[in-house]
Every structure is written in C-alpha cells, then in structure tokens.
Specification:
Structural class: alpha+beta
Distance between the termini: 76 Å
Helix content: 55-70%
Radius of gyration: 51 Å
Order of helices and strands: HHHHHEEEEHHHEHEEHEEHHEE
Number of strands: 11
Shape: elongated
Largest sheet: 5 strands, mixed
Length: 485
Amino acid sequence: MKFKLIHKLLLANAGIILSLTMAFVSLSYFISQSLYSNALNGIDSDVLEHLSEELSAQYNKNGSWDFYINDHAKWKKTVDDQFFAVFFSLMKTIDAHTDKKINPSSPDQIENPKWELPFGTFFQRLSLLDANKNPLIEAEILNADASYQKIKLNGKVIGWLRTGKINVDMLPLQQYFFDQQLNIVYWAVIIGGIASTLLSFLLSRHFTFPIRELINGAQQISRRNFKHVIKISTHDELQELAQSFNSISTELEFYQTQQKAWLMDVSHELKAPLTLLVGEIFAICDNLSKCDESTASFLQNEVNHIKRMADDLYHLCEIDRKGLQINRKLIALKPLIENQAKRYQSKFKNNQIILNEHYDAHFIQINGDGDRLTQVLDNIFENSLRYMDSPGELWVRLEQIDGQALLELEDSGPGVPDDLLPKLFDRYYSTSADLRKVSGGAGLGLAICKEIINAHKGEISAISGTRGGLCLRILLPLCLEESHE
C-alpha cells in the first residue's frame, strides 16, 4: 500500500499527539496526587519545626519532660497552639489577595475542632520521644511511615518528635477530587485532539502543496516541457528549490534550442559537400564532366572536409562519453610546433598564406600529451587554410611568461566581432554566418581545442588581433623540471 507524504505527516502527528496526551494524563494524575500529599505533609513539617523550638524552650525552663508527661492537657494545648499558628499563617498567606482575612487570634478559629479524619489529626499522630527515641508520650494513631524532628538545646539532642505521614488515599474526597480532575483532562484531550488533528491536516496540506508543485514541475521537465514555471511563495528552502528547478528548465530550454541549431548547422555543413560530390559524380557518370586531375583534387577536398567533420563529431562524442584521455610526458613545445608548421608549409603556400614563426630563446617544456596538442594545432591551421583571406599572413609566436608557456596564432583576417569572441569555443553556438565562417562550420574544431587545453590545465581564448584578424592565445603551465636544449 502506497502512503503519500500527507498521510505520513498525519499519522506522525496523530502518534505524537496520542503519546503526549497519554503522558500528560498519567503525569497529571500522579503529580497532582504527589503535590496533594506533599502539601498536607508539608504543613506537618512546618509545624514540627516550630513545635521543636517551643518544646526546647519549655524543656530549658522546666529541666525535664515530666511537665508534659504528667499533664496531658498541657501537652495537647502546646501542640494545638503551634499547629493552628502555622496553619492560619499559611492560610493568611494564601488569602493575601482576597477580601476575606483570617484572624488567628479569633477564639472560634483558634479552638481545635473535632475533626474526624481517617488518618487522624496532627495531635493524634504525634509522639514525643526521648534522646534515644524511646516513647515518652505515644501517639493515638501510629503509622509506620513517619517523619522525625530533632529537639535540640544548646546543640545537644534532648528529644525527638515523631508524626505519622498522611496517606491521601484515605481521604473521603480524594478520589472524587482526582476523578473530577481526570474528567477535565479527558475533555481537554478530546477537544485539543480534534483541534490538533484539524490543524495538523491543514499544516500537512500547506507543507505538501509545494512538494506536489515540485513533482509536477519535475514531470513537466521529463516531458521536455521547459516552459512550465513552478510558482511557490513559501519564503523557505522549498521556494529556493523551485527557483532552482525553474533555472534548470531555462537552461535546458536554451540547451535544447542551441542543440537543434547546432544539428542544423552540422547537417548543412555535411549536406553542402555531399551535394557537390553527388552532383560531380553523376556528371562524370553521364559523361557531362571529365575526371581529370582538377576534378579529382576537387573531390578529394570535399571528401576531406566530410571526413574532418565526422572525425570532430566522433572526438566530441568520445569526450562526452568517457572523458578526454591524456597521456602525459615531457614535451618540448618548439620542436612540436615547428614540425606541424613544416607539414602545413606547402598548403599555406598553395593558398598564398605566408607563415611567420617567432620562438622564445628559452627552452620551453611542459608535461602534456603531444598527440593531443598536435590535434589542437591541426584544427587551428585547418581553419586558417579554409577561412583566411588570400593572400594573407599567419603569425605563430611562442614565449615564456609568468611561469607559463604562451602560444599565439594570429592571422591577417577576416576578423571576428568582439561580441562573438567568447562564443567561438562553444560547440552549440554557431548560428550566425560570421561565426560559422571562423569556427569551422559547426563550432566543432575549436570546441575540441578547448577540451584538450582544459585537460592540460591551460587556457585558450580569442581576441581581436592587431593586424585586423583573429588572435588565438593558448596558455599552458610549464614543467617544474629544469631541462636544457
């Protein structure tokens, strides 16, 4: 059976309310009983303390306990006087804020009433003991559970007072009192439980509503409906989460749009050479054109164009699937660049492009993958061959600066608008004709270059050149090991 979050919250709240209610009822009953017992026995403790002081004074005056042992009425009067003095003093404190004032000196209040109590009056429960706790005046009602109070004179124990503790369970009204209290508690629990359950339901709906909205938003994203906006105004983490979902939707919508445009560009780049190839091949087959050296060179260039596009797509897919594999070793940059420039020298010459090389006198060495860096140079040189104005010039400069190797490749034109420069390396951003012209058609070659340079913990950027063209700047960290050419 599937439980929704709102059901779990309701069950959890109901369990908490039930547990707290049971604990409250139990504690209320036992604490009330304990407080009631402590209140009654607390009066006894106060009376014992005052009575012990009075008895100490009487013992000091008479020299023994015989004056009480032989005069029972005097013993009773002393005990009653002290009891009612303490009792009315406490009652006066309790009624201090009421209109009715108790006057302890009034004869009708001081006179000891004939109480019929199941546990006995204070006098009936009180015993006078000597210093060794031997009975001198025995209580009328004995109780095994008793309290003791020392009677001291000049720091010496001269006797003890013993009084049996009050058992509230013996009170006739005790059970009625607690039953009434429990009835009040039960009604409070019932009313409070209903109100708490209703409040819990409303709060559960309040808390689960934004979650339902988030679930709905996630389902819309899974259906690729990126225009759906989650509207939550709870001013808490759930609202932040909703805003994050909306940001994800916006980014995915942008990504989807750019991906579609990129696929259109790739299709266009592949369609153009394929159309030329098919048309030329059909023309040769229909004897409308001859397959001479010029035609073969043209077909070869178009095939190489298609192969380069396919290779770039494959490399990007490999990078996305399992990351870029880098086989690091010590590499001297100058020989690597010179070798690639030498390989492209004839191609540049055929396209009337002059290649200018300038190398730092320092021996520049890095820890990197020579094949991958060669791939970067190939992509840049191929772009230069395809998209530079002819005749033109290409400047290659390598130098050491601030503990890094700086490689700059600058051409004589055409240039790139400043607002498009940061987007040259984005594989999904090549929708404008100007950007397609400099980025390799569909933004693949320079995107691969960026992945390779980033894997070497370097940086690649594009700026406007000083000679009217584009300048690509590559920064690579130098190897820490010192070496000499």
